[in-house]
From TrEMBL:
Cellular compartments per GO CC: plasma membrane
SUPFAM superfamilies documented for this protein: MetI-like
Keywords: Cell membrane, Membrane, Transmembrane, Transmembrane helix, Transport
InterPro entries: MetI-like, MetI-like_sf
Protein's recorded name: Peptide/nickel transport system permease protein
Length: 315
């Protein structure tokens, strides 16, 4: 299995190169340029314009060569190296992703177990109704509802940004303030992402309850809690655990909307502002970052599924 994991990991490199060629070419063909109507102090604008005037494939080869040397280019909007600009915001997005994914599973697992064990009960019907609403609502609608309810009506959480904390503040206070500001963005993703896992877990439990080995265990007098823990839940949770990597990929697409609505200083909001200003260097690197995260998420899902079910073999 480890050989297959290594092979799949190495395949990410040519896939990422092919993706980089595509996004670089598309970025160069976008209308406009980052220098139109701008006077950049302290920089040779003539040389930059000449560089942008080269054919896109020449710039691509130059960019690949510089990237291999750790130089991802210069942001013409922020006037700083791209890797520094993205690195300053990447930690915020990773923090939001961690809290969002954790919160989505804290919501999905107990509700999915309850709905599966008590299927067709009143509680199950309420959960299915809420799930249907969650499936129907776009994520930006969920965000706006949460902002209106918890931000403006109840005034429980801030609706935008991140705190600017003094360096003298303790680590515990700093983490608490970050969590306080990330609650609404994380809850937005969690409510949207948990619906699918609730449905998968509920369906898996209902199906597993009818399996012959479960009926046999019950006939032998095995306690109900042990039947669910060792037989039913183990099988029913496989679709949920194996799709963890795809939840990461889902967060990638959702983070752009979430960060923009909540003015959250992550790479999603940076991506929108870079598109508006035609900052090609930042756009390409961010798209590569999203592509890499999607490829890694797919690989993680395949690894988890292979470990959870030995009958599945990674290709």
């Amino acid at each position: 299995m480890w050989n297959k994991i290594l092979r799949r990991s190495l395949l990410i490199i040519p896939q990422l190169l092919a993706f980089s060629l595509l996004v670089f070419a598309l970025a160069q063909w976008m209308p406009g340029d980052p220098l139109t109507g701008r006077i950049i102090q302290g920089m040779d604008q003539g040389s930059m314009t000449a560089t942008l005037g080269n054919p896109w494939y020449v710039r691509y080869l130059q960019w690949i060569g510089n990237m291999l040397n750790g130089d991802f280019g210069l942001s013409y909007t922020y006037l700083m190296p791209v890797e520094v600009l993205i690195g300053a915001r990447l930690s915020n997005t990773l923090f939001l992703a961690t809290v969002s994914l954790l919160l989505s599973y804290l919501i999905a697992v107990p509700l999915g177990i309850y709905a599966g064990r008590s299927n067709d009960s009143m509680g199950d019907k309420v959960i299915r109704l809420l799930n249907s609403i969650s499936f129907a609502l776009p994520i930006f609608i969920v965000a706006l509802v949460l902002v209106w309810l918890f931000g403006f009506k109840l005034e429980l959480f801030p609706t935008r940004g991140m705190p600017l904390l003094p360096e003298s503040q303790s680590a515990i206070v700093s983490i608490w303030n970050r969590l306080y500001h990330v609650v609404l963005p994380a809850l937005t993703f969690a409510l949207s992402a948990s619906a699918g896992n609730i449905q998968r877990l509920r369906s898996g439990i209902i199906e597993a309850k009818q399996e012959d080995y479960v009926l046999t265990a019950r006939s032998k007098g095995v306690p109900e809690s042990m039947v669910y823990r060792k037989h039913i839940f183990r099988k029913a949770s496989m679709p949920v655990t194996s799709l963890f990597g795809y939840d990461i990929t889902g967060f990638i697409g959702s983070s752009i909307f979430i960060e923009y609505i909540f003015s959250y200083p992550g790479i999603g909001r940076l991506f929108i502002s870079s598109l508006e200003s035609r900052d090609f260097s930042v756009i390409v690197v961010l798209l590569l970052t999203y592509g890499l995260a999607a490829l890694v998420g797919t690989l993680v899902s395949d690894i988890i599924l292979t470990i959870a079910d030995p009958r599945v073999r990674m290709r």
